Amino acid sequence: MKHKHKWIGIGAGVLSFFLGMFSLALRGLFNQIQIEQVLYTSFGLIAIVGVISLALAVYYLRKGREAYVIYQTVEEEEANEKAYVSAYRFLDYGTVASNILMIAMLCCLVIVTSPVIENVYLFIFSLVLMFFSFAVANYCVRTIFLIRQYKLSIFSTPKEVLSFLNSYDEGEKQAEMENAYLTLFKLNQIILPALYILLFVLSTILQETQLVALLILIVIHLYINIDQLRKTKRYFK
């Protein structure tokens, strides 16, 4: 037993040594990396995602409209059903791409407002991307109205979205609610806890507490859990 404890102690010491060396190496690497390089690289990657999302959103929304027109005109039952499914599938793909485009646009705007970035062309690109984001969002809303016969605004309120969900048929509504529940569960039980671990690792390596990121993470985590009380108060009076 004594030998076992001895080897455990030696193993823990060796592991601590290598973790310390790894931490020092990473800290040195982070010190060599300039924030300007990180911001420019991040902007480039996000801009690529934005452009791809723009193309995909326009493509899928247009395909959804075309499929809906076929659904309205074709009388053959099998072709009609196929067009119906395609219209709704393409609409969902286009909606997701439109949302990703909006996220990319917001990220680009945040990056170009940094005092480190002094490139007017990136600022102009961000404004152009913002214009296309709102144009695609408007196109998406009009496509939703065409296919689902429900009018949404670009900046929909939670009440509007809930009313929109109630317009679904029972099968699709059930699938949507199951997907939302699983997404919320993964976010609450897996993704956010993993981000806590990531912040801990970064804080250890950089020898600096990532306070702002930690506070944002805590606020999101608390909101998700406290907001579930609305369901409890509503259904268990």
List the topology elements.
Layout lengths: L1 H31 L2 H39 L3 H36 L7 H29 L9 H9 L3 H37 L4 H17 L1 H7 L2
Helix pairs in contact: 2-3, 2-4, 3-4, 6-7
Keywords: Membrane, Monooxygenase, Oxidoreductase, Transmembrane, Transmembrane helix
Protein name: Beta-carotene 15,15'-monooxygenase
GO molecular function, one term: monooxygenase activity
Element-level helix/strand string:
HHHHHHHH
Radius of gyration: 25 Å
Number of helical runs? 8
Euclidean distance between termini CA atoms = 58 Å
How many independent structural domains? 2
Q: What portion of residues belong to β-strands?
A: under 5%
Class by SSE composition: mainly alpha
Number of strands: 0
Identify the overall geometry. globular
Please state the oligomeric state of the protein chains shown.
single chain
The whole-number mean of residue pLDDT values reads 81
- Major sheet details: none
What fraction, in percent, of the residue positions are helical?
A: over 70%
Unreliable parts: 1-7
Model description:
With 237 residues, the chain is an all-alpha fold. The protein folds into two domains: 31-165; 168-236. Helices cover 86% and strands 0% of the residues. The chain contains eight helices and no strands. The chain has helices at residues 2-32, 35-73, 77-112, 120-148, 158-166, 170-206, 211-227, 229-235. Helix 2 (35-73) runs antiparallel to helix 3 (77-112), helix 3 (77-112) packs antiparallel against helix 4 (120-148) and helix 6 runs antiparallel to helix 7 (211-227). The longest helix has 39 residues, at 35-73. The protein is globular and about 65 Å long. 14% of the residues are buried.
